[in-house]
Amino acid sequence: GSDPSALVAMDTATVLYTHTQQRYFSSYSPVIGFYIYESAPYWNDSVQRDLLEYAKGFQRISWLEAYLNYLSDRNQSTSQPRENFTRTLRHSFLREPQFAHFADDIIFAERGQGEEPDVAASRIFLVAKTTENKREEMSVLLDTLRRLSLTSRVRFLIFNPSFVYLDRYATAVSSPLRHSLLAVLFLLGLSSLVVVEPLVSLWLGLTLLSVQFGVLGFMTLWGVEMDCVSVLCLISALGHSADCSGPLLCGFTSGRGESRTRWVRLALERHGIPSLQTLVCYSAALVPVCSVRSNLTRTLFRCLILTAGCSALHTLAFLPTLLTFLPPSKSRDHRPGREGQRQEVECVEMNDSTRVVDQITTV
User: Quick one: pLDDT at residue 337?
Assistant: First the structure.
């Protein structure tokens, strides 16, 4: 996955905050808002147990837990009639200086004239203590809480601003990965149909797979995460490597009657130098992209420069070396009755009395 801070420009307050949070508080999850959006019988003992059980295992900022402890310290029952529960909450608990900040976490709704207001909605803040497997633990934690929100008799939802990015990213990254695999299979199938020589199709498919895995491996070593930009670059790497290696392979396999070394040299002279010029111009055009102070642009630069490097390595080094001792064969096509046969070309000029009529070339 990708860090949400990678979406903003570098050297900004967002990135500074993210790095500080990861340095000092990386073992804690984001602050999760636990929102009870419907009126609930908070005075009921079973509802209190359920809400405390949901928040169990978290670092909590909970008005309900503080209020129940407040009642217990004064030897009052936590299970009271609704009017008594709400009256003590409004006129005693929330007016204490140490609990006054909880007033922002509770919304009261008027009932009838002379009746105590009802708690229409409230919120609790939760922070999870995690280990180095933070992403996996957060995923399990969120899935558990979301399942509870669908089955619990207390209607609640959980939210953090980063959830918008995480949910969107979960759907956005799976689709390009799946489409990238489909693009590889489609390109391999298409190359097997349009290329006349079967061995060209085989070599081209192996080259594309090798370039794809090479770019992916160097991305990992360079610290490039698998985000939306890098996945799209992996798809574009297929077409770029096919453009570089395809003409070289076709030029080599089309030759007959000479040694492998000579045909490799001829293929490099005809197609290798243009491919090298293309790759040099392509790399030079990417240099200004490196100076942009943006994580996504840096990711784009790294992926594209790795694509150019892997394509050049395969086109100018790996393929010429392997083709010197691996199929296809370069032997002359021998047919019965044609050994020792030579072709003679004769040009016969036919004249009439006035002008040259024609020149006939016969074999």
Answer: 44
Residue 340 identity: G
CA distance 180 to 185: 9
Instruction: Say which amino acid occupies 205.
Output: G
Instruction: Give the C-alpha distances (Å, rounded to integers) separating 48 from 9, 53, 65, 84.
Output: 45, 9, 9, 16
pLDDT tens track for 242-274: 888 888 888 888 777 678 888 888 888 888 888
Non-local (6+) Cβ contacts of 233 within 8 A are 215, 299, 300, 303, 304, 307
DSSP assignment string, 150-203: HH-SS-EEEE-HHHHHHHHHHHHHHHHHHHHHHHHHHHHHHHHHH-SSHHHHHH
Place of tokens 């399990």: 140
Among 54-58, 194-198, 208-212, which range has the highest average pLDDT? 208-212
**Closest by Cα among 321, 315, 279, 307 to 207:** 315
Instruction: Give pLDDT tens digits for 71-105.
Output: 999 999 888 898 899 999 999 999 999 999 999 99
So what's the pLDDT on residue 296? Answer: 83
pLDDT of residue 93: 94
Which structure tokens are listed for 194? 């349009």
Predicted local confidence at residue 63, as pLDDT: 94
Spatial contact of 39 and 120, defined as CB atoms under 8 Å apart: yes
In 3D space, the residue among 238, 247, 270 whose CA is nearest the CA of residue 195 turns out to be 247
C-alpha to C-alpha distances, 122 to 42, 133, 145, 239, nearest whole angstrom: 10, 31, 17, 55
Distances (CA, A) of 350 to 62, 189, 346, 358, 361: 111, 56, 13, 6, 11
CA distance 5 to 3: 5
Mean residue pLDDT of the chain comes to 80
Task: Tell how far CA 306 is from the center of its chain.
Answer: 17
E strand or H helix at 32: strand 32-36
Place of tokens 């029952």: 77
